[in-house]
Amino acid sequence: MAEASTRETYGKTLIELGKQNEDIVVLDADLSPSTMTNFFAREFPDRFFNCGLEEQNMVGIAAGLAASGKIVFASSFAIFASCRCFDQLRLCLSQPELNVKIVATHGGITVGEDGTSHQAIEDLALYCALPGFTVIVPADAIEAAEAIRVAASDYGPFYIRLSRPKTPIIYPRGYQFVLGKAVTMRQGQDATIIATGIMVAKALEASDVLARQGIDCRVINIHTLKPLDEAVIVKAASETDAIVVAEEHLAQGGLGSRVAQIVAREKPVPMEFVNLGDRYAVSGKAEELLQRYGLTARDIEESVKSVARKK
Amino acid sequence: MPNHSKMSLESTPEGNKFNLTTAELREMAKKLRRHVITMIATAGSGHPGGSLSAADIITALYFKVLRHNPQDPQWPNRDRFILSKGHAAPILYAALAETGYFPMVELATLRKLNSHLQGHADRKFTPGVEMSSGSLGMGLSFAIGVALAARLDSKAYRTYVLLSDGECEEGQTWEAALSAAHFKLDNLTAIVDYNGIQLSGWVRDIMNLEPFIQKWQAFGWYTIDIDGHDFDQILSAYQEAEKIKGKPAVIVAHTIKGKGVSFMENNVAFHGKAPTREEAERALKELE
User: Fold this and answer.
1) What residues in B contact A59, CB-CB < 8 Å?
2) d(CA A143, CA A174)
3) CATH of the domain at A292
4) Is the confidence at residue B1, as pLDDT, over 70?
């Protein structure tokens, strides 16, 4: 499967947006060679501000620029763009609903070798807890580019989580991203796998294996965690009577919690969850960590079988 | 950086349309202090001390310095005032009402359900409030964003931000202090309401800020040290700050917490406590 980097896509898409709209400004907190906002910085030095290692200050500056009519992209690693500045996100962006796009790279455990301190596995819970925020986890580089374009044109605070490693391309060129509208990647009747981010490719892989075993799985990519596409979830619960949710995140507060809330309210069916549980990971290669912490296609496959038995 | 000479004359805001004399400013400050007492007493909760200490600083801005238009709070060329010490919202509301941003009768609704006047300043609810505050240490960062936008847009407006001394204990204040100097924001004036008292006692006992002026200087700021209740000093400080090129300016305004009401002055208890009806009456008498 072809692979591409979502953060490189971010860097390139920012240049494209910067050319189209003079009101786009970009902030970074000393990580621009890694978040790839340095592409924009080279092209539009007047509209790029390196805020140094001051994530809290960066969020405030972003708010001030946005309140003055700018469309602000602010980037750091997902861990620093969430935990480090949460009170600032709340008071300066969420409550006043300012037009700032936090695009964070290095989400999840696939940061790898840098280890626990750098692995953002609670960011989705934190951002989903902020009223008014739109929260997106693209499944591949093509979806990432689309999401970034939509963020630029849609007013309000956004969080977009990208990854460090290259990830498989799962969409054809010309894919149309619709904000808040989940994508049914595959139809199926026996169970539904709902996934986000890098877990979507793994869900597709798992459904291939399951199909060969005679289990017909629906696969849904929920790229927008907030606002959530409730209808697609209710439909899946009604039609397949079993749901597995897969995400590169802690058990609490991420996609699994959000989907479970809808399922419990609208159409209770058996569910299983593929995530990190309630623990931190360690240093290691991305693939090794995904194996160790149960975030592989195989783990999804087993969860589908387990949830199907409960039907 | 954009070329500053590009700034067009039509983008330069007109002067302050109230333009009070110093004697009139003193009277207006008293009037605003009376509003503060009445508002907080009516609400039954709030922070009188920090509103009273900032009254003269804010009166001078709204009635003499700021180029603003209460009939058009979003006028793109307005000077911006950002209240970082959000608990002093009552004095800002009083100034906004007296200058005409909203009807005076609304002052009596402070902190009540459905009011435009939230317990702490909130830009979503109140015309003229530039930024939400209440969690301390964030206003200076926001002001930097506003000042950078002015530079990007070649606009001549000036950005003012009022900090409390207590919030200079927040790390973010110093992140912002570093970056404002780094970005050479000479269109930014910060004022610190140095009343010396925070919620649980004297600042010097809780977390000493001294040597304070030297800290700002070391961070690359132009500093002006004044008596924050002397209008001549306040006005000349604003003028001096505006002339500085290449760096931001901070006015360290030495003030008295609870200023104007004898039993609130330097009294920690009135940081965050409403006066009783009887106390409010006494306070209003002193402010006549």
Assistant:
1) 141
2) 10
3) 3.40.50.920
4) no
